[in-house]
Amino acid sequence: MNRLIEYMLPPAKSTLAGETDALFAFINISSFIFIIGITLTMLYFAWRYRRKSDDDVTPVISHNNILEITWSVIPLILVIIVFSWGYSTYMKKISPPSDAYEVRVVGKSWLWEFHYDNGNVSVNELHVPENRPVKLIMSSDDVIHSFYVPDFRVKMDVLPNRYTSVWFEATEQGESTVYCTEYCGTAHSNMLATVHVHSQEDFEDWLETSGGSGEDLPPVERGEMLVQQNACMTCHSTDGSRLTGPTFQGAWGSDVPLENGETVQFDENYVRESILEPNAKVHQGFQPVMPSYAGTLDDRQIDAIIEYIKTLQ
């Protein structure tokens, strides 16, 4: 059974992954046994009761109580087992321990924001300690998303205007991938994040150093780091190619045509407003799908991004 799970599923890296895998294996093995049994029975009946001559007449068969009860009770027992097993595992997955470390998760097109208890904010990178329960309290700023980490066997829809939660306890250090499994727009497939599992000591060190905020870097380098961390390049290219949003290359100082027919200059004020209120001035030919970064990026971070964009000529 372990080899079957290893072949069909990614490595199990959480405390509850084993229970999910066991149920998965039970359903697959049971299904395999039944499909083989039913197929062989059909083949046997097709051979056993084949017409041997033109004089063969199929007898009239009304019913068989034992047979009918058998083929009704066996599936019923299997359904009860799967339901009870699945319900038990589900209740464990939605009932986090009281000492779980809480992280606020915000889904938006097309990135994940993670807010920690000391005020740190990371984008598309979730940092958690090893062998400690972590509870994610999640909401969406726009449409429905879905938070899924295959290695941990956890998945939960992330909804606008309400909170959902899920928890896990990572059992080994390393990295795992987060996917959005609810179609949320043109860049849905790029809405990825990475879970970094640290030792408790390394996790505390990461929190104390603000998760690598880059405050000691020159403004241009910090701006480039922030553009990458906040997944800006998912929608804005730096080489002139057209993506979901307008390119950054050569944009600085240019005239920007807006959907309302007006024209504005691509300067500090325009960039700042576009980051904090992206739908206030929508670039002509592009959809108003950019999320707001108000509360995510502060003034100094926005200044650094502006300095980086200035270099992309």
Molecular structure report:
35% of the residues lie in helices and 20% in strands. Strand 2 and strand 3 (121-123) form a beta hairpin. Strands 3-2-1-5-8 form a five-stranded mixed sheet, with no helix packed on it. A five-stranded mixed sheet has the order 4-10-9-6-7. Strands 11-12 form a two-stranded antiparallel sheet. The longest helix has 32 residues, at 17-48. It folds into three domains: 2-41 and 66-93; 101-208, Cupredoxins -  blue copper proteins (Immunoglobulin-like); 219-310, Cytochrome c-like domain (Cytochrome Bc1 Complex, Chain D, domain 2, Orthogonal Bundle), CATH 1.10.760. The radius of gyration is 28 Å and the shape is elongated. 24% of the residues are buried. With 313 residues, it is an alpha+beta fold.
